[in-house]
Amino acid sequence: MEVWEVVAGFLAVYLPGPGEHPRTAHTQALGFAVRAAAWAGARGELPCVAEIARRRGSSGFVREARRLHARLS
User: Fold this and answer.
1) pTM of whole model > 0.70?
2) Are 65 and 48 in contact, with CB atoms under 8 Å apart?
3) What is the spatial distance between Cα 32 and Cα 5, in angstroms, rounded to a whole number?
């Protein structure tokens, strides 16, 4: 559970904000977050991830955000 708490806090400050472009490392961080959430049995929406998951598009970044959002919902 502690790993998930660290990852959730990290995502809130690490993910690119509005107008910023995601990088490969952001996509990889979301992929790791999906795995960490599964390990921890995490639940509960993360606003920073929910915002990305609602975006139109199908980039790897958005797909990973959708996976994480679905896992947490």
Assistant:
1) yes
2) no
3) 13
